[in-house]
Design a protein that fits this description.
The structure is a homotetramer.
Chain A (H helix, E strand, L loop, with lengths): L22 H23 L2 H8 L3 H8 L2 H24 L6 H18 L1 H11 L6 H29 L13 H24 L5 H20 L8
Chain B binds a DNA duplex through helix 3.
Organism (chains A, B, C, D): Streptomyces venezuelae (strain ATCC 10712 / CBS 650.69 / DSM 40230 / JCM 4526 / NBRC 13096 / PD 04745)
Keywords (chains A, B, C, D): DNA-binding, Transcription, Transcription regulation
InterPro entries (chains A, B, C, D): DesT_TetR_C (IPR054129), Homeodomain-like_sf (IPR009057), HTH-type_TetR-like_transc_reg (IPR050109), HTH_TetR (IPR001647), Tet_transcr_reg_TetR-rel_C_sf (IPR036271)
DNA sequence: AATGAATGAGGCTTCATTCAT
DNA sequence: AATGAATGAAGCCTCATTCAT
């Protein structure tokens, strides 16, 4: 009997319904279905019925493995946040080079991921954040880590600038911790906004989006570090 | 006697429940309550029961005046979008001065409004936009008008820069229509993102937020117009 | 000021809304509106809102004059039943001639009334009867009176037949009270059924309907009185 | 053990509530309950609450299986119309003999069914027909089929009469298509009317009702075919 | 004579969740 | 490993009816 239902890594056998799959596979199917459903309808409007149907299983099985709608949503957020954080971290950390190069690599990874997994991006950027606790917090943790990367890069650039040459030119010593935080917020906010806009706008590639943001933001940061502030006359 | 319930523009008199108010007053109370409820819970999770209770009326009266949850939400979005658009437009149009001065004025008005009416801002920026049609479209119209203001100011600055001196320095002629659009998107996106962040972060004033954004964005724009692009080495 | 609103018998003055009409006029307007509304939607589905609007008055006035939906429906049934009974009675009683002639006159009056007041006929034949007590009883009283007329005419014909000549020919003495009742029921049932069918079928006149029924029924009655029963072989 | 709840075709075992019955059984219970409820109160006034309670299940289960009040009513009408049509068709078609014999058989089947299933008969003859589309249409289809049977029998009798002897006697050739239609309408209308009257009148049997109608109608039809029309003098 | 303002009660429908196998 | 059967709770909406003028 073992093997009678032989299943490959990909999941379903042939065209029919695959039964008696191992738990890990079933859970992935459910989470995949949940991502789609939550992305499309939002947490409240998504229904366990639809998710079970999309996953090709009965509702009790969803409850057996994921316990409740709330835990299911949390599991989805965690899985997708880890994935996104993973690709961004891989692009930014443990790699040498000047901070702007690393920021560029991180942005490219970020925009590419958002473009390739639009439902995941929608869940993280919209559905989780607008759903209140504990979901928003779950997504905020990931965002904070990304913001910390960015703040790190900005700070690094500022120190380099202070020290001598570099992107920021010489002479700027004015960037404090709180300001770095606000700048990182603005940059990450821009990136998120651009990512959603790019996903919704046909013909905009991840590379274009990343380039626009670098043009827009990094040179502005450079100015800031040269203490060239704008101020009302 | 006549006048025993005399009511002012502001609404309820004293601490007791005011009964038999004129329709216009009641409608405003209901819309106010709806803004709070939709902001807190989102469209789906907000309940007509809670809205009625917050407004101090019975549910049937809400239906008598606003017809349905959908129409109520639409009415809320329209009212708040008009209000926000109004203050921004007043700050930007029909006023002379260089484009950066007018952008500064507009940003200040925008951040101030968002700070003073956080629920309205949440409804417009989050609840309406994530609820799909027809609500997202209703809010998008307002956003588009604001984005058009900003694009106009950027374009104007670019023309001035092309023409000679000005913020952007001389010589830059590289900013095309599509690029202006993307920049305006990024700037508006940053502004929205910053506004929500400022509302959620104690101690951040509207003026600070506006200043951060001007520093961050306008000088970056200036660089762009000098054709000082960032590009991967 | 009296007379400033001068109104004619017909009701509304000019094109605008007539205000301060005498009670009798207002009540007729309300009953007219109610007949239409009850005929179209049935008792349950008809709404006091619609009736008030059709009557051109506010709802409280309807309650002031007619007290409740139930009483309003009852008032409608009574008014329409009296009217229908009136025209039929006028055609049948207090008039000489043989019973078949009088039946013919009664049927003609009945079908004509139903054709000319289809809403009233619908209320009586359908809406009242299917609404349970006390409404069905109200309509049943009228139907019983009409059935009694018919039974009277059948009985009279039977006696004539027994006595000698007449429609029914000679020799038949077999028609008892219970049978007369059943026959009258069948005839009245046919008439009602035909009236509704005629109203719903374009091009069928009251005279045609009456003729069909006389052909169908009266000669059959004649046979019965000649004891020519049908019986399974 | 398995089988502890063993249930027969008829439904519930013993006096206690049977749980976890198969869908088909539950659906039949719900339809039975719905027939009773719709017959008593009419479509609008019947409540899903009462139906669920009569069926011995919770409301959500009714919705799970029957989807909505409208679909439930439609399902009821279809089931009962099929059943009634079935017994009448079985009595009339695929059976030899003269048309009057077959009409007699059909009427007997009809009146018996109406007597044995008064709620079903009320739903079909009253509740469905007065509820407007799409319900009236659903019931009208069944009625039309029955009327077609009757028209067929009348036409057959007329042709026999034309041909020579037969019920209708000789010589009559005057019955046209439209007239046959009207006669069939009148006969079916009488039958319906009589059925409801018989159900409401204690002591009237189906056989009596059928006999009354045959006496009343068939001999009348015979006269018609002999061209013995009634006409006002 | 007439009405704008207001509500208690109830109906249809949906959904997350559990039970028993 | 998996599911068919079932429900408590809650939400949107409507309607007959009344209040205060």
């Amino acid at each position: 009997m073992g093997g009678v239902w032989g299943f490959g890594v990909g999941g379903v056998v042939g065209g029919g319904k695959a039964r008696r799959l191992p738990r890990v596979v079933r859970e992935r199917q459910m989470l995949d279905a949940a991502v789609r459903s939550f992305a499309r309808h939002g947490y409240q409007a998504a229904s366990m019925d639809e998710i079970a149907e999309l996953a090709g299983v009965s509702k009790p099985l969803v409850y057996l493995y994921l316990n409740s709608k709330e835990e299911l949503f949390t599991a989805v957020i965690r899985r997708e946040a880890q994935a996104l954080l993973g690709v961004v971290a891989e692009a930014v950390v443990g790699r040498g080079g000047p901070p702007d190069e690393r920021l560029w690599a991180g942005l490219l990874a970020f925009f590419s991921y958002a473009a390739e997994h639009p439902d995941a991006w929608t869940v993280l950027s919209v559905r989780a954040r607008t759903q209140g606790e504990p979901f928003a917090g779950e997504a905020a943790r990931m965002r904070d880590e990304i913001t910390a990367f960015v703040a790190g890069l900005i700070g690094e650039a500022a120190r380099e600038a202070r020290g001598g040459g570099g992107v920021a030119g010489r002479g700027g010593a004015a960037v404090g911790g709180r300001e770095v935080e606000a700048l990182a917020q603005a940059l990450v906010g821009s990136a998120e906004s651009l990512a959603s806009w790019a996903n919704a706008t046909p013909g905009v590639t991840a590379k274009e989006a990343a380039a626009t943001l670098m043009d827009f933001a990094w040179s502005g940061l450079g100015n800031l570090m040269k203490s060239e502030r704008w101020s009302p006359r």
